[in-house]
Write a structure and sequence with these properties.
This protein has about 100 residues and is mainly beta. The chain contains 2 helices and 5 strands.
Length: about 100
């Protein structure tokens, strides 16, 4: 099924049990960013090595983060959504 057949909707990667939606609020340098998570927490998120050179992350990007279970104010970024995908998530009410 192509994008046009179902009204422009794409099947997007949704968060697993241990992941939450987040918006990048600040670039901290040294492969770290400040994110505002959907659960209301501000966290320092780490960009993993597998994403550093392949995926560019900028302020206001919508990402999936995996909060650390031993240190709740930190997280790892596991996915970045394209702008069109982020718009679709907002339209469908997954993120504000």
């Amino acid at each position: 099924m192509s994008e046009n057949e179902n009204g422009g909707r794409k099947d997007l990667r949704m968060p697993d049990d241990d992941e939450v939606f987040a918006v990048v609020t600040d670039m901290l340098g040294a492969n770290r960013v400040q994110v505002r998570c959907a659960d209301g927490q501000e966290r320092t998120a780490r960009i993993p090595g597998r994403m550093q050179k392949r995926i560019w992350i900028r302020e206001d990007d919508v990402v999936l983060v995996e909060p650390w279970d031993w240190q709740d104010e930190k997280a790892d970024i596991s996915w970045r959504y394209e702008k069109s995908e982020a718009d679709q998530l907002r339209r469908e009410g997954h993120i504000e």
